[in-house]
Design goal:
Distance between the termini: 33 Å
Helix content: 55-70%
Length: 138
């Protein structure tokens, strides 16, 4: 689940421009495969809940089953939000905005995007954002 490790890291050519067609195709593939994996898992969960929903005579068994369903549904809800981020990233690939920090406009970087393909900020802006968030919370 949530594994995006089934790809070969992109090795750009010596003078290859950042977010070249090859790089965009690489990330498009990662994102679409990840989205497919998440949607398949959601379908599996839906089928599991549908098949396992039955009236259990023992109240403790029923409570355990309902808790399992609740946990699965919370996980799927997080994944649904992640699918929206993936779709946003795919739209950015189409528009030519993918791979650039939404805060400062600099390159996010290939390795950061491979680690987190839905990243929208460079590491410096993300770090600054997290520091500000900690200060506001604490």
């Amino acid at each position: 689940m949530n594994t995006i490790t089934n790809f070969t890291p992109y090795e750009p050519a010596k003078d290859e421009e950042y977010m070249s067609d090859g790089q965009l195709a690489h990330f498009h593939s990662i994102l679409t495969n990840w989205r497919h994996e998440l949607m398949t898992e959601a379908e599996r969960t839906k089928n599991y809940i549908h098949e396992e929903t039955n009236t259990m005579p023992d109240i403790n068994d029923r409570a355990t089953q309902e808790e399992e369903f609740a946990l699965a549904l919370r996980t799927r809800d997080r994944e649904r939000k992640l699918i929206r981020k993936i779709e946003k990233s795919l739209a950015e690939i189409e528009s030519g905005d993918y791979g650039f920090c939404e805060t400062c406009g600099t390159e996010i970087g290939l390795r950061r995007l491979e680690a987190r393909p839905t990243a929208t900020q460079c590491i410096d802006c993300k770090t600054l954002s997290e520091i500000k968030e900690k200060q506001n919370l604490g």
